[in-house]
Design a protein that fits this description.
- The radius of gyration is 20 Å and the shape is globular.
- The mean pLDDT is about 95.
- With about 350 residues, the protein is of the alpha/beta class.
- The protein starts with a strand and ends in a 17-residue tail after the last helix.
- The chain has two domains: about 5-120 and about 305-320, Nucleotidyltransferase, domain 5 (2-Layer Sandwich); about 130-300, ATPase, nucleotide binding domain (Nucleotidyltransferase, domain 5, 2-Layer Sandwich).
- Helices cover about 45% and strands about 20% of the residues.
- Bound molecules: 5'-O-[(R)-(carboxyoxy)(hydroxy)phosphoryl]adenosine (KG4) and zinc ion (ZN).
Length: about 350
């Protein structure tokens, strides 16, 4: 029997829906919320309200693009955790109501597992083939920074993670200090392209094992900017590209040095990137170069599968369906949950 599954993602500020049939993505629709830019960050209450407005049209569009009707669905997958609780509640209540009314199974998906499994979407990465198990994944998003060993689609183990800020936060907070609007990560990426990454030196934290820390870097950037601006108030404006390139290069080296350590420790050479920060051009380039030098097989999802999307929820839902991992209608959304 074929499996047609509808997936809904609403963990932060994107309302997304995707239809997948037997593991093939038929549609991947995303409505982004522009309203938060004027506040310098995501405002949870506004995000929840926007999800309520977007969820029906986005699901409708996902079904239409896939050429499927509600009656053809075999299961509903949704992001259960982690994320903003109000935002998660909108997607989860919608998914539960739909599963109940169609009398089909419900599949709760962990957002971070889904970011990793984006690499298992056919045609999503730069490689012809899918990664072989076990593979390592560096997942870098706005709320998480993790190194994960993926033994199978449903058996994943976090072997390293941040002890404070996530890589995305390091980008966004650095951007804020430079007077750039939210989300600043893509803007740092943009300005860094024309800057000199060796112009300014920022420290690499000494964190044992495979864990990360970005709070020291944030403080170092703040003190550096205060000192330079005291001497020259126009410092940031005059040096924006070089500062962005130097900050980006340090964040990238922190990430990749730990990833290399993880590859050596585990002996795994099939290595993936995932999460919103994996859209960063500097990280993608340095990852490919490291992969070549270390003889890894590397996988990088296209931008649309790096940032939040429902196709990654759909592929995870599909594998959970095959593994019989269904949820009761009593399942609740959770801002934080382990997997
Ligand atoms: O995975 P994601 O879309 O949402 C979360 O689950 O958090 O990641 C969002 C994060 C934000 O911090 C954003 O600034 C960052 O990804 N980001 C980037 C780039 N595109 C998105 N950071 C650096 N360079 C980019 N090109
Ligand atoms: Zn995400």
């Amino acid at each position: 029997m074929s499996i047609t599954l509808l997936a809904i993602e609403s963990s932060c500020d994107e309302t997304a829906a995707s239809v997948c049939r037997d593991g093939h993505i038929l549609s991947n629709i995303i409505a982004s919320q522009k309203i938060h830019a004027q506040y310098g960050g995501v405002v949870p209450e506004l995000a929840s309200r926007a999800h309520i407005q977007h969820v029906v049209p986005v699901v409708d569009q996902a079904l239409k693009t896939a050429g499927r009707g509600l009656i053809e669905l075999n299961a509903i997958a949704f992001t259960q955790s982690p994320g903003l609780i109000g935002s998660l509640l909108v997607g989860s209540q919608f998914a539960k109501s739909l599963a109940l009314s169609l009398n089909i199974p419900l599949i709760a998906v962990h957002h971070m597992q889904a970011h990793v499994l984006a690499n298992l979407i056919e045609g999503a990465t730069d490689q012809q083939k899918l990664p072989e198990f076990p593979f390592l994944c560096l997942t870098v998003s706005g709320g998480h920074t993790q190194i994960v060993v993926c033994e199978s689609p449903t058996l994943l183990k976090v072997i390293g993670e941040t002890t404070d800020d996530a890589a995305g936060e390091a980008f966004d907070k650095s951007a804020k200090m430079l007077g750039l609007p939210y989300p600043g990560g893509p803007l740092i990426d943009h300005y860094a392209a024309s800057g000199d990454p060796l112009k300014f030196k920022f420290p690499e934290p000494k964190i044992p094992g495979l864990n990360f820390s970005f709070s020291g870097l944030k403080t170092a950037i703040l003190y550096f900017l205060q000192e330079q601006q005291a001497k020259d108030p126009g410092f940031v404006e005059k040096n924006l590209a070089d500062i962005c390139a130097s900050v980006q290069s340090r964040i990238v080296s922190i990430l990749l040095n730990k990833l290399k350590k993880a590859a050596v420790q585990t002996g795994i050479s099939s290595i993936c990137l995932a999460g919103g920060v994996a859209a960063n051009k500097g990280l993608r380039k340095a990852f490919l170069e490291m992969g070549q030098a270390c003889e890894w097989t590397t996988f990088i999802p296209q931008m649309t599968y790096c940032t939040d999307n429902a196709a990654m929820i759909a592929i995870t839902g599909y594998y959970k369906y095959l593994a019989g991992q269904f949820s009761a209608l009593t399942v609740t959304a959770s801002a934080r949950a382990c997997w």
